[in-house]
Description:
GO molecular function, one term: DNA binding
InterPro entries: RNA_pol_sigma-70_dom, RNA_pol_sigma70_r4, RNA_pol_sigma_r3/r4-like
Radius of gyration: 27 Å
Protein name: Sigma-70 family RNA polymerase sigma factor
GO biological process, one term: DNA-templated transcription initiation
Keywords: DNA-binding, Sigma factor, Transcription, Transcription regulation
Amino acid sequence: MRPRQEITDMFSTFVQLERGRFSKWLTDAKLYRNMQNHLEHSSSAFKSENFWALYWYNQWHSGFNNLARMHLLAYLQEPCYWVAAKTVAKFNFSQYMLADYFQMAIAEVETILKDFNPEKSSSLKAYAIMAMSSRLKDILRQRKEADICTNWALLRKVSKKLLSEALGEAGLSQSAIAQYRLAWTCFKELYIQNQPGGNSQLPEPNRQLWEAIANLYNHQRQSQITQTTEQRNAQTIEQWLTQTALYVRAYLFPSVKSLNAFKQNDDTTITFDLPDPSSDSLMADMIAEEDVQNRQNQISQMSGVLLKALHSLDVQSQEVLKLYYEQGLTQQQIVQQLQMSQPTVSRKLVKGRESILAALIRWSQDLNISVNSNQIKDMSLALEEWLRNQYGGTT
């Protein structure tokens, strides 16, 4: 992939893929004109990539600028592609290609923007790389989990909300949805609650259990379903629940269409078909608490890595960093207070930060996050912010 160099291009161009690989950048004329207009009316001091990323993020967050989301989507094309390339290299056994992973990453942009907190991270791109990589790993893990689950284990995991959405997406009427949902409730009450909690290979109910589930359904249908419905036998209930499991699988993991082509309208504005990223995460309904815990653990791990690297520095380096970030002293003031030479103070500041940054890079690479010169620059800015927060300084 040829990285974009101009600010205008960063916020107005989109990746075109051919044969599953990067082909070229396509320009959205409306976004390009809008970006040019903003650059012409801004001072030269505020033309950095990071400034405009945070500017469009704030515009998107406020909801007052309809183009802000598209500017951000254009900006995050490179992180999406980098993460997709890294994922396809790591999981080459998967049925998905680079274009498929790229589409998955693009579909996560809305979630990434919602979770991003500029008060904790000054670089949207660095955050997006880390968050997208984690999200794609979750999707693959969930895909594998769903594949190995039997129908009965899957029906045990699924929530009532997701079940109803899956049945609705399958085109069932409200009356049919109510009947399928009641059959599922009876199934859970008589069978799944008595099975081991962590078993993904739950066996099929025997004939006696199917009869009991059908009897419970027939007993509850008049009070639980508003419409008048017929009695159902065990064979029908079994067919319903088997089909329900298929509907849930199809809803959780619809077929992926590779993004190998873009559509272009008359005014050269580029559009493309994507799943709605603003909709609720599907499999997350089943393991939402686990996902939250994973993110919290990752943040905690990163903080631990930075603290360990900081505390591994020699005593003088730690003292120099403390005076610089906590008390806001200049290098010359630190020279006077610690009775060191100015080159020594400068070296300890630089080497101390480089040592902590190196630890952060190693940790990122251990998580299979691609790190290039641009990411290192963003991570360096994030580290600077972390040091200020760590010491409570204001410099």
